[in-house]
């Protein structure tokens, strides 16, 4: 622990800070006030009965302003270890560049990271890093060189962070960074594993509280524990991986792998729509993931583009299905009766059940059909903004909005697959196995790419164990009226991954865009279509 005599008196902090800049940081005092993001306080720990520092020469503290700080014997280091400053028996074992501390000042609430570049060791709180290894520096961390007892600095983090906003069990292991997304039932934080220096997303779900006699059902403890139970039970390359779960009195903290590619929703809005080849590549992964869930007796019930994440910004990327707050375990002879999910993606039988009658896992195939539709043409098949019919009637009758101008370049097999997924009669709806065997899905290049990604992921992850800690074509039902096309446009970025969203079952806002079809363009007819 750092002694009180090492910390500057608060009344003299400003003066000492200014002196620190003149003595240790820069030769020329800047005309602006720099951001001091950290401070290294000198220790007075003894080695064989003597101080590490020479009494007359050691600096009381060093202010960290530049994004990179180096220490060593080399003259180009930020802090040069000299014989008149530190004991000779210590300095002879210090490397030319012993360690480096970096902080990305362009990234809000990014932690300071120290990397050991020495042969004789850099130690944090007595633990050796090892050459080339790094770790996140925490407030009051002790830095030693050459030997655990040679404690030369104590690090003070001067930037705002939220370590004290979470239970100590979490802040001890993770550095809490910026908010990635916020929704009706909680928020998601970017966090860093202090030892591994890896990024994760942490979903924080506040437990329900009584308000005017009403329970917040979004945060119902039963719903939260259902999500945790499912996360503990599933392991698949295309399902979001859960590192660990912390359960406290007021909230549940779920540590998830971080998806750098954002949501499928955002990829569609950015490109307008996806090519058939790219859709085939992503859709195959989605179907395999849902098939795996069903094999485990789990129905997702809330599949939508916002709940499909991309691992990277590249085209060759894994997808990850997330958000199991509405999922349900299903026994062999049991069905779900709960009315749930996002209305735009709900299957007809869910609406028809109205929370009273039952429906089965086929609801996920319908939702996949809506996602498939949106991927290919960039607008929603069903919407309350289509004034001809209510949203409920559109879904119950399977009358999706069909725009000839948008579908004209889509292959016949793609159109047929879409129709078979958006089939109202459950018994006639295509199954997941039939989707995988459908002619539109037969592409060897796509199959090989997906299998390669799966193999790479399984090799890298090793499938670690989760731990839980307490504290269409026109048909006879169609029409040829001019159609209003609902295009997906992200209004107000709600990030997931480095764009990660929370678990609210409320769809992202959509902007209504009128499709201005020319009346003399007889090849661009827009209509309702039905599977009947």
UniProtKB/TrEMBL annotation:
For this protein, the record's PROSITE patterns field holds: FHA_DOMAIN (PS50006), PROTEIN_KINASE_DOM (PS50011), PROTEIN_KINASE_ST (PS00108)
Keywords from the UniProt entry: ATP-binding, Nucleotide-binding
Q: Outline the extent of the Protein kinase domain.
A: 174-441
Query: What domain of life is recorded for the organism?
Result: Eukaryota
Question: Which InterPro entries does this UniProt record tie to the protein?
Answer: FHA_dom, Kinase-like_dom_sf, Prot_kinase_dom, Ser/Thr_kinase_AS, SMAD_FHA_dom_sf
Which SUPFAM superfamilies is this protein grouped with? Answer: Protein kinase-like (PK-like), SMAD/FHA domain
Task: Give me the ranges of the annotated region Disordered.
Answer: 1-26
Q: Which Pfam families match?
A: FHA (PF00498), Pkinase (PF00069)
According to the entry, every stretch annotated as the FHA domain falls at 69-129
Any one Gene Ontology MF annotation carried by this entry is: protein kinase activity
Name-wise, this protein is Ovarian-specific serine/threonine-protein kinase Lok
List the source organism.
Answer: Mythimna separata (Oriental armyworm)
